[in-house]
Amino acid sequence: PRSFLDVRDLRIHFNTDDGVVKAVDGLSFQLDRGKTLGIVGESGSGKSVTSLGILGLHRHSKARVSGEVWLDGEDLIAASDERVRALRGQRIAMIFQDPLTAMHPYFTVGAQIIEAYRVHNNVSKKVARQRAIDMLGRVGIPQPARRVDDYPHQFSGGMRQRAMIAMALVNNPELLIADEPTTALDVTVQAQILDLIRDLQEEFHSAVIMITHDLGVVAELADDILVMYGGKAVEYGTAETIFRRPEHPYAWGLLGSMPRVDRDVRDRLIPVKGTPPSLINLPSGCAFHPRCPYVGYNGIPCRTEIPTLAEGSDHGVACHIPPAERQRIFSEDIAPA
Ligand code: SF4
Ligand code: MG
C-alpha cells in the first residue's frame, strides 16, 4: 500500500430485479493521515456507496464487492466480518447528513456516546460518562454536563450534528468519513460544523473523506478532490488543480454551480444540464456523453469508448479530449481572459 488508506479498483455491484446496479465501478484513490479527500458528485454517482464499502457496511446486503481497501496495511475487503466490526467505530468512524440515522431517538445522547466508547474500551460507566461530557464540550455543546442526559429530539439540528460528531470521534478514529455532513443545516451552522471537523482533524491527525454534492463544501477543506460520475472517477487531483484548472467537462459544470467562484468565471461556465445516469443502464462509451457539450469533439469516440483515468498520475482525467486541448479549452473558453 502506498498510503494510510489505499483503495484499489473498488467495485460494488448490486443485483436487483431490474438488473445489476454498478454503484461503484473501478475506483482507486489514496489518502494519508492528516489529509482530507473530497469525493464530489451528484446524487446517484456512487459516492455514498463508496463510503459504505470502506466501512464494510455492504456486507449485510447482497452486494458483490471486489478490489482492495488497504487501511494502515490491512485489506478490509479481505478481512473477516468480525475484524471489520472491531475497526468500525474505533479506527474508522462515520458522520451522516441526518444524525438520526446514527442516533437512536429512545436513548439519551450521553448513553449513546458512552456505549460507543465502552464497546471499544474496557472502562467503567463513570469514566465513559466523563468522556462523553468532555466530547460534548469539545464539539461546542454548552453545559455538556447537563445536556448529556438529553434525548436527541431535545437538541437543535445543529447540536444533534455536533453530538453525532462527538460520538463518531469518541474513540479518536484515524479515518473519518463524512457524508454530506452539513447539507441539512443552515449556512452559519454549516460553516461552524466544517470548522469543527477541521479543528478536530488537526488535533487527532485523522484522515478525512468528505463526501458532498457541493464543491463549495470542500473548497477550503480538501487537499485532494475526486469527482465521481456514474460510479467512476472522472477527475482526480489536488484541490488546487481541480479548482484552478479542471479538465473534465463535468467538473467545468460543477464548478459553474459553485457560488465561491469568481463571477466572471461562473458566467462563462456551462451548467450541467440533464439528469445523472441510471447506474443500471449507463450510457455507452463515456457515461457523461448525453450531457456533455463537447461530445464528439474533433471526432473523438465519446459514444463508443469508455475513457479511463490514468492510474497513478498526479492529475487524472477520464475524457477523450487530448490533455493539451482540454487545457486550451479551459483557458480560452471557460476561465476568464
Ligand atoms: Fe465529453 Fe467525450 Fe470527454 Fe466524455 S469523453 S467528457 S463525452 S468530451
Ligand atoms: Mg448520498
Automatic annotation (TrEMBL):
Compartments reported by the entry: Cell membrane
SMART domains, per database record: AAA (SM00382)
Annotated family: Belongs to the ABC transporter superfamily.
This protein's UniProt keywords: ATP-binding, Cell membrane, Membrane, Nucleotide-binding, Transport
Protein topology in the membrane: Peripheral membrane protein
Pfam families: ABC_tran, oligo_HPY
Protein name per Swiss-Prot or TrEMBL: ABC transporter ATP-binding protein
Domain ABC transporter: 7-255
InterPro entries in the cross-refs: AAA+_ATPase, ABC_Ni/Peptide_Import, ABC_transporter-like_ATP-bd, ABC_transporter-like_CS, Oligopep_ABC_C, P-loop_NTPase
One Gene Ontology MF term: ATP binding
